[in-house]
TrEMBL record:
InterPro entries: ATPase_AAA_core, P-loop_NTPase
Domain ATPase AAA-type core span(s) in chain numbering: 44-396
Pfam families to which the protein is assigned, alphabetical: AAA_21
UniProt protein name: ATPase AAA-type core domain-containing protein
GO terms, molecular function: ATP binding; ATP hydrolysis activity
Length: 460
């Protein structure tokens, strides 16, 4: 589970900022906390802020870190991405950017991170550390500038210690890929007889399986929903009052699926299929098959990847029990399409992390509220985490959310984004915080100048 994410010098984030899922000293809704050995972890967090405050940039930072881990810098960088440092400070171009995940695995917390020169596309440092209550334990570190590296022998048996040091030495000056990806890829023999070393795989698997959803993402993972049985999904769609009465799927060819689709989207889908197939071959994900959801020209296509076997199915919908009329995804409302993106959260596997940017996009306020309430109810029993950004102020209700489940992102005078936890304001549990937020009590709201300075309220 996610414990904390730390980031610095990325887009609108200048100095290092920390987003924490560690619970505070809040008494209500304790039943939806995860109890670790020495602390408790939140399963839900909501992030509020004005437009251009930096909410989406925090999500992009997590996405960026995952992408660098999976693909390195050579294949994941367009020229425009070289400017993703904090550009409002002249020194931003020359400063390293900082990304670090703190993750709970098997009741221990591990910090995995790296520093990178974004403009130069060079990874500078990388580390994996087991965090202790009294003392930390470094598992490995490396610095590409001077070539120094270290691997903790306590995680190696005598048979593989020499080989591990060779791998790390060979990687000491490699600045375009991360060592963690290299050491878990196609090296199954390293992990056969050394259970302790398996933490490398577990950290990699957890990060690589983070689910990040933007409002207009055309290709998303859909592996938490059954590919053949839609009964649970139908119950959810019925409860959200979409008008859909039946989901119908039929198998089609790849050529039919990609008919009249852009080469760019086709290339994106092919690369994703290739990556997921390779991930299974490398035995990293622990899954026998994966399913993608793709919006192709308004048609919902599910792509099942099971080894070398790839199947395409088109999904359409019936409404109000009328069986001879079928609707494609593109014919559904914006809200229904958005909901179909979101519902996979409610069927998530244990220890999944979902991060959703602009949860309320295209959703009625009542539906947004109902979706969050539904997740919070599920979170009482299931160990899944959901982080959202939103403008829906009706979620700012202390009968619904804990104080530590609320964050604000505020834009400072120098244009830098600051992450502000709500519980630092020490508000009473019965306060109307939605009104106080809109009045600017906590910052993170837009400040307007008059477009027409001579105009006064009440004038014609």
């Amino acid at each position: 589970m996610l414990v904390r994410f730390n980031v610095g010098n990325f887009c609108s984030i200048s100095d290092n900022q920390s987003f924490s899922m560690i619970s505070g000293n809040v008494k209500n809704h304790k039943d939806r906390l995860y109890s670790a050995k020495d602390f408790k972890i939140l399963k839900f967090a909501s992030i509020f802020g004005a437009n251009a405050s930096g909410k989406s940039n925090l999500i992009k930072a997590i996405h960026y870190a995952v992408t660098i881990l999976l693909q390195g810098t050579e294949n994941s960088f367009a020229d425009s991405n070289r400017n993703n440092y904090f550009r409002l400070n002249p020194s931003g171009k020359d400063r390293n950017s900082y990304f670090e995940f703190e993750i709970l695995i098997n009741d221990s917390v591990y910090a995995y991170g790296f520093e990178i020169s974004i403009f130069e596309k060079k990874i500078k440092e990388e580390w994996l550390i087991r965090l202790g209550k009294n003392e930390d334990e470094t598992i490995f570190t490396r610095k590409t500038d001077d070539g120094t590296s270290y691997f903790n022998d306590n995680y190696l048996n005598s048979d593989i210690a020499g080989r591990m040091n060779i791998y790390l030495d060979d990687y000491s000056h490699v600045y375009y890929k991360l060592f963690l990806k290299e050491i878990v890829s196609n090296k199954a023999e390293l992990y056969k007889n050394d259970g302790k070393l398996g933490i490398l795989r577990e950290v990699y698997n957890w990060i690589s399986n983070i689910n990040i959803l933007y409002p207009n993402t055309p290709v998303t993972g859909y592996d938490t929903l059954s590919f053949d049985n839609f009964s649970d999904l139908m119950k959810a769609l019925t409860s959200f009052d979409t008008g859909i009465s039946k989901i119908i799927s039929h198998e089609i060819s790849k050529e039919q699926a990609f008919d009249k689709v852009s080469y760019r989207l086709r290339d994106d889908v092919d690369k994703t299929i290739e990556f997921l197939g390779r991930q299974r071959t490398e035995a990293l994900s622990g899954r026998d098959s994966r399913v993608l959801r793709v919006n192709i020209n308004g048609n919902l296509i599910l792509i099942s990847i099971n080894g070398d076997e790839i199947k395409f199915k088109e999904i359409c919908f019936e409404h109000f029990g009328v069986s001879d009329v079928k609707f494609s995804l593109g014919e559904e409302s914006d809200g229904t399409r958005r909901l179909l993106d979101l519902l996979s959260v409610l069927f998530a596997e244990e220890n999944s992390l979902f991060i959703i940017d602009e949860l309320d996009r295209s959703l009625h306020p009542q539906l947004t509220l109902y979706f969050v309430k539904t997740f919070l109810r599920i979170a009482r029993k299931n160990n899944i985490q959901l982080v959202i950004t939103t403008h829906e102020s009706r979620l700012l209700n202390l009968n619904l959310l804990r104080q530590d489940e609320i964050y604000f992102i505020d834009r400072k005078e120098n244009g830098a984004s600051a992450i502000v936890p709500f519980d630092c304001f020490k508000e009473r549990f019965d306060k109307r915080i939605d009104v106080a937020y809109l009045d600017g009590r906590y910052g993170a709201v837009p400040l307007f100048d008059s477009i027409y300075p001579d105009y006064e309220d009440g004038e014609d």
